[in-house]
Fold these 2 entries.
Entry 1:
Amino acid sequence: MNQPMRKKVWLMILLLMILSCAALAEEIPAAFEGYFEKTVFLRPSPAASSESLAAIPALTLLRLEPVDERYAKATYEGKSGYIYYAEVLRVPEGTPVEPYLAYLPESKYLFVLPADGAASLLTIPAETPLTVTAEVDRFLLVEYAGQTGYVYARDAEAIDGMYARPTDAEFTADAAVAARRYPLSGAPVVLTLEAGRACMAEAVCNGYYRVTLGEETVYVPVDQVTTQRAAAATARAALITPGTVLFTAPDQSARAEAHLPQACVMLLEAQENGFQRLRGTPLYVRANDVEAWAVEHQEGLCLRVTADASLMVRPQAGAEAAADIAAGGLLAEVYAVGDWYLLPVAAAWGFLPQDAAVVAALNEDDPMMLTAAVTTQEAAFFGASGAPETVPAGMRLVITGGAEEFWRVTCGAGEGLLPKADVRILGSDTPLTVYTVTAPADIPVMDFPDSTLGTVKGTIPAGTSLRVTGFNRCYLMVTGGGYTGYAPQEGLLTAESRGIPATEEVPDYQLVLDKSTGMCYAFTMDEDGNLAEVVICAEVGIGKRTTPTPAGTFTLGYKERWHTFTHTYTPHTTEYVQARYVHGWPCVERSSASVKTGMMVTGMVTGGCLRSPFEFAEWVYKNCTSYLTQLTIVSGGFEAPEGAEAVQVR
């Protein structure tokens, strides 16, 4: 072989060696993530050896850095070594998708690999939002809580695909309710609706109401709120700010030119189509454009402010003040939400903490006799507006209820409240067994049981049949000839009505019971309000040890001609404290001739009542004015008044 040929051969050999080295270099891959379907061992060197640093379980995600065509460097549980990677499986890249939100209806694992039996990173709670970035065979690649992993595609549902339907339901938060970013229990809380907050739902999704509040769209659990019809007449109050858009109709196109100059609280009236009307105006607001609260009207409640205070524009401590209110103010129109009252002061409404006022609830369940009364001086009358109105001295009143310091009255100024200190009671309508009589002469009928304050409604002609149903002071309550009212008793007295006061000037009486002797006395009062002379007295039955008659001072109240107990009826029954009465001896029928025999009438024999002789109970019933006469009960030490024996009845 000549010299030139030899050189060519060597060049060919060198070229083949270079190409072989390049091919060998291409066979060693770059670092990648992979896993094995069986247990593999971490070796101390890239060579076959029986020595191992650790056993790596199947389906463990590893980062491999190949050093040759057989071995790769890896780290497991803090130990670095080499793994024979001939059977490695690479983690599939999957199909990237436009990221979207999904959730798991039930708690599931986040896996490190898209493979059955793979190890889990953590547990994803049910109904928690997570972001999907790729689809890998039967799995989804997701991001959750700063981790990336895999969940089964069958376990996940897209949030955008949740069932939703339009709704137009108003709802009110029963207590503080978390409003979330998505209709999921694990979604982030955006804000909290305080108790009483009222909103209009736009849709219902997965058991949540969707609602837009300002710039935020949030979701509120349906089962944590109270839902009303959109047109319901429930009371609501809203904070209307100067930037609030007003409408002249419940329509988006009916935008009003008017606007409010300053923030204020106003009552709302519910309307359809997501709008509510400002009460007393022709203007509307979108329900969710304002902060609104469902407020409950406190029927029969009067409120006295105990200290100078500010009314707030929200039922929240630290809110902006809407108006000031002075101590001692009495308010009749009161609403409540949570621990706050909603009150009107002049033309402004605002919220007052409940601990800043004393409440006197006028209990509708406690019956009260209609009672004639008169104002003793100029007085502050609180009507429907809640603002005080001055009424003159000497104005006639009809009292219909009361509690603590106030009477609920009907008068020329309407229906409202008056302080008890400014009112003098004349007498109460007291029932009698109904008798029908014939008018012996023309009978004038008044609308009020007082000759000075009453007005004659008309005259019942002589010979007209009329019914006597009761009395008030010295006047009989009659119905006949087309009239119902108060008539003089001359010529109309019946067996039932004999014994009622003869004149309008009914004396003030006070009763005293000494439980140690069982004696009850009725006294007249002197000019200084002290006990004067005993008028009538009797030994009465009092409460047993298990149901004692209470000690203290009480005011006589509701009266019944016959009161029904379980097995008996008691005549001339006058309540002195709830479910405790002064009454005549029990009868088996509504007749004093049917006294129940075989029972003790005196001693400790009652359930707390004063079981009295017929004459004594009737005298108290007809002469002791309800809501004025006091009964003082002592447990001993009361000396029998002089002359009491002469007026004792048995």
Entry 2:
Amino acid sequence: MTDSLPRIVESPFQANIQYRGRLLYPERGPLVHAQRLALAFEPEPARLHLLASPGLWYGLPELLASLPADCAVLALEADPALAELSRLCLPEGLDANPRFAFVEGFDPSALVEAARRLGRFRRVRLVRLSGGAAFSPGAYEKAEALLNEDFSAFWKNRVSLMAMGRLWVRNIFRNLARLDEMAPEPLPRFRKPVLLCGAGPSLELVLPLLHRCRGQLDLVAVDTAVGPLVQAGYLPDLVVCLEAQIWNLRDFLPLNGVALPILADLSSHPASFKAAGGRTHLSLTAIEEGPFLRRLGALALPFLSLPPLGSVGVHAFEVALRLAEAPILLAGLDFAWPVGKSHARGAPALMAAEFRRIRLSGEADFAGSFRPEARKTPSGWFSDHVLSRYAALAAELAAARKALAPGQLFDLRGPGGLDLGLRRLSPEDALALVQSFPPLPASPLPPATPPQLEDLQSSNPSPHSVGRAFLESELRELVALESILRGSSPHPGSTALGGLIAERDYLLWTQPDAHRLGELPQDLLNRILVEVAYWSGLLGELLRD
């Protein structure tokens, strides 16, 4: 008869664990066996060692002692009975070790949180020093994959911050400085069915539908879809923009002076607002969790706060989900392309390929279709890893909405795009759906007001004064910080100095070793001084204009 609960059994050598008819360590020399396994690992930098089923913690001291300073051990016990035993046997003082954590039960959020508390690592190394992992088959491999995915996302984000962080912050400051020109307004809610348009090839499929029921739809378009829609004779009710660089200005060339309402992120290129020319609405994307963006979000401005979703198409989908009170129909958000046609007709990328055509180059964008990372999809179209990831994010958003409000999301993209898990409609069914909704008057969406700003908003400050006050405060703090770093002002102490820098965490966005801030190494402080001087100079220019 097997044991239903684990128990410690004594042997002539060391204690062992007996559970469900088996010993978790070898009968002879269990401690020595675990120690040898622990010492067999070649030390590698920045590795999190995931200790599967720690049991009696044999081998853990040796493992910790052999690891480089930038490594740590995260012990995981997925079996509840074994977790209770391991907790009771935890060596005294081990839980106070900053390079160690113990998680009981397979809780993804708790696992990720514990790993982040231990530090930032490149990869996970799965370590088995006992046989307890056999009682939770697959759990530890799933935990390893989960943590590796979290680490990968973190470092990809770090790379993005290093490449784009300075541009994003520069755009934010410049946009705050010209809020008087923008005159941002709260976003209206969409009371009619929403046709959300990306610039994929399937956008062309809905043009006949627009011809028959344009007045019964709220038309929301990503910036790249403006050209195809305007050239077909349809002006969007809202254009969604997320681009920090100047390249997306070509999206607005077909407007030829026609003004369109725009929802652009505060980090978007300032020229995007002028290019659209219509009413301005602002979003604030949480590019990076930290004090800088939290302070921005607390301003008395009509922001629509959004998570970082990467793709303007997924970003626009989230906007539509936030504002729509009627069904949402998707078109052009394909995340894939057929051979020779990366976008709908009239989109800048496809037009650029057409301009490059000569008699011998064919009539399609074959270079874009057959780039090295392209992979064929079940529909016969092509996609790549980046677009597939964006499609997965869109599918997650769709699934969350479907769980709350079934029957609100519909797919008009035809058979070619990546599957988003939505009900597909024919043009006839889509027309019947749209016409079944009576027109409703628009209702404004009031901006979110942080409780701490009730007194400030009661005096009705203008957006311009709010933006200018933020920039002035930021400049004062940067000047004071620069004085400390140059030695012109008294040093406030390591903890206080680290706090002053961390409060303006955008100073660290371009630093690959930002995680070293707690140590305040001089080389990092020297580079932060360069950043402080750059931003204080820019803010001084913006406030003088």
